Amino acid sequence: MSKNCENAPRVCKNALICALGTQFDGVFVQVFDKIDSTNTEAKRMVENGFLGDALLVAHSQTAGRGRMGRSFYSPAATGAYFSILHTLTTPLCDAVAITSAASVAVMRAIRSLTGIQTQIKWVNDLYYNEKKVCGILTEAVSTGESTHVIVGIGINLDTADFPRELTGIAGSLGAHVDTNALIAKICCEIAFYLQNPTAREWLSDYRAHSCVIGRRVAWLEGENTRIGIAESIDEDGALLIKDEQNKLIRLHTGEISLRPLKD
Ligand code: BTN
Could you tell me if the CB of 73 is within 6 A of ligand 1? Predict the structure, then answer.
């Protein structure tokens, strides 16, 4: 940690910028003690005309957002909560796999800094000891003149107490980690994929550390719950499922739940 940050909370802007290195020269970096949501702040920046790339980090969020309109519990100083805002120079469809690539970036950074091997639950949740320890919310924003991608990441580092509704579902890594180094490592890898959207170097790890391949899964199709066996993951990160009629289904997005072999 840099000299200026000795008594600082987990994330220190100077140490973070230092850890990010030259790859992030010219990227706007801001660290908030408390904010509603770093993804929401990124959206506000775009609405106010921001063009370029930014990294927004918060020590806590009062209205952290998750996928499917859910909230993301973001208590002070026990997690890493941050959003990467990227102004696209290529068509939005090129960024289709960024959310899967981001989960691999987080998985690798956690492993390299703590030795902990997490598992990826399609699309992009990370699990450790059967509990969710990281969620990723990717959003696209268009102003008419420019299109932006926001990749928001929340990692429970050593959150000990969760609200009752998350008991048994959410967990934490229980690891002491240099949060500046962790965020920087993740951001640098994601930045590479944002610059090289057709790269598929993440795919082998995405498949190898998936906790859904070969498992019986359920998903919603309209109002109906469908059941099948997750067979594999294709080049774009879509999940290939063999349904109960042996038909191959390709899920691009959405959510699955893991089911026991027999109900
Ligand atoms: C999920 O679990 O469904 C996704 C959770 C994403 C949480 C992160 S924390 C930083 C960023 N700001 C938010 O409001 N959400 C994302």
Answer: no
